[in-house]
Please model this.
Amino acid sequence: MAIEVTVTLTDAATAVGRGRIRLLQAVAREGSIAAGAKAVGLTYKAAWDALEAMSNLFGQPLLNTRKGGAAGGGAWLTPAGITVIEAYGRLEAEMARVVRRLEPDLRGSGISPVNLFSGFFMKTSARNTLRGTITRIASDALNAEVSVAVSDTTTIHAMITNESLHDLGLCIGCDALVLIKASFVVIAPGKVPPAVSARNCVHGTVLRCESTAVNAEVVLDVGGGKTLAATISAHSASALGLSRGTAACALFDAAHVIIAID
Model:
C-alpha cells in the first residue's frame, strides 16, 4: 500500500494544509488571485480569506499584488511565499519517510502512524476528543452537518460551514476527530432522554462522578472503549442521583462540536 502524508500547520485560529498550499501555487502560476481561485475550485472571496489567513499565520505576506490598470492586475509570490511552498513540500516528504519506517512496528496494534502523531502532538482545551469515521454529510447553501461514528452504538453530529468542509477535505468514510467542551454537555438521567432541541443525544452509563463544593465532572461510558465527560453543578449531580452504573444521556448541540483531522 502506498503511504501518503498530508501535513497541516496550525495555530489557534487557522490552519494551512495541502489545499491552501495548492491555492498559493495556483495563484502564482496563473498570475492572479481570481484565476488561481478558479483553478482550484474556490470563489474569489474564499481564496482571498484563505490567503489572508496564511499571511496572518506566518506573520508576513506570501503574495505581492498589483491592482488592475493600464498594466493590468496581478499577483506573484514574495520570498516568504516561495519559502513556505518549498518547506511544505520537503516537510511532507520527510514525514512520509518517517511513517514508512514506523509502519512495520505498528502493524497489528490497531494504531496507525497518523493516529500516533495526532495522539502525541495534538493539544486542545476540549475535554472530549473522540476519533471516529464520517458516515454522513448533509449540506445546504451555507452549512453542513457531518455525522461521525465514534463507536458501533454512538454517532456524533457536528454543524460546520461549507468552507470548513472544503478546507478539511471531509468525505464519507474518512477518519475524523470530534471535540466537545465538557461545559457544553448536559446530563439527563435514565435511558430515555427528555424532549429537547439538542441534536446530539448520546446514551451511556456513568463511569464516575466526582464533585467539589461547586462543580461536578460526570464521565459516561458510551461504548467501544469511549467516554464522554460533562461539567455540571455539584447541586445538579446530587439532585439527579448520578453514581457509578447509573444510565444517563449526554445532550449537546451540533454547533458545539468541532471537527478536526490528522
User: Anything to note?
Assistant: The first strand starts at residue 9 and ends at 10. Residues 126 and 187 are 17 Å apart (CA to CA). Residues 79-106 form the longest helix (28 residues).
